[in-house]
Amino acid sequence: QVRLVESGGDLVQPGGSLRLSCAASGFTVSQYTMRWLRQAPGKGLEWISSIVSSGSTMYADSVKGRFAISRDNAKNTLYLQMNSLKPEDTAVYYCARSTERPRGQGTQVTVSS
């Protein structure tokens, strides 16, 4: 059974950093394109980053240069390192496999002073 569990969200001040984790089970993360998406209050799902099986990465313009996606093949876990956080980064963050919709509950990131 495919399962994705996000964690690591928190309340952080503007300019701060967080690292989100997405623990996967039921499949091998490195064999798929994996994505991070987010949903801000009152808005739809927004794609922010992907990592393909080869390890190449892609980012939305809104997070490019501040966020970094990675994976640990041994732990079958996806990560999102978020630096220089802004209030507009406040959202529930989800990971997803390939083009599928998020399966997990997401993790809340709140950027506020």
- The fraction of residues in strands falls at over 45%
Let me know the largest β-sheet.
Answer: 6 strands, mixed
Rg (CA only): 13 Å
| Oligomerization status of the protein chains | single chain
Please supply descriptive tags for the structure shown above.
6-stranded mixed β-sheet, single chain, globular, 4-stranded antiparallel β-sheet, 113 residues, mainly beta
Explain what this protein looks like in three dimensions.
This protein has 113 residues and is an all-beta fold. It has strands spanning 3-7, 11-12, 18-25, 34-39, 45-51, 57-59, 67-72, 77-82, 91-97, 107-111. The strands form two sheets. Strands 2-10-9-4-5-6 form a six-stranded mixed beta sheet, with no helix packed on it. Strands 1-3-8-7 form a four-stranded antiparallel beta sheet, with no helix packed on it. The protein is globular and about 40 Å long. The protein starts with a strand and ends with a strand. The relative contact order is 0.33. The mean pLDDT is 97.
